[in-house]
């Protein structure tokens, strides 16, 4: 399934242990409930750049007691932070 979501400034993220260099805070909107649900871990956070879809994040975490809550952002692992590690693993596979 596909949904357009807002990406937040790290200062706007409502998680105490949010690490902005390694994570992206996105989701929660007051207009429509959009966000991650149980079982979504590992799904891609994509952005269209110059006509191509680029993976920016991987679904990681969200509030435990809800699914696609309208006011709470979700946490995504920032792929750019792990790019070197990913490329090294691909070389050896």
TrEMBL record:
<dbReference type="GO" id="GO:0004252">
    <property type="term" value="F:serine-type endopeptidase activity"/>
</dbReference>
<feature type="domain" description="Peptidase S1">
    <location>
        <begin position="1"/>
        <end position="91"/>
    </location>
</feature>
<protein>
    <recommendedName>
        <fullName>Peptidase S1 domain-containing protein</fullName>
    </recommendedName>
</protein>
<dbReference type="InterPro" id="IPR043504">
    <property type="entry name" value="Peptidase_S1_PA_chymotrypsin"/>
</dbReference>
<dbReference type="GO" id="GO:0006508">
    <property type="term" value="P:proteolysis"/>
</dbReference>
<dbReference type="Pfam" id="PF00089">
    <property type="entry name" value="Trypsin"/>
</dbReference>
<dbReference type="InterPro" id="IPR009003">
    <property type="entry name" value="Peptidase_S1_PA"/>
</dbReference>
<dbReference type="InterPro" id="IPR001254">
    <property type="entry name" value="Trypsin_dom"/>
</dbReference>
<dbReference type="InterPro" id="IPR051333">
    <property type="entry name" value="CLIP_Serine_Protease"/>
</dbReference>
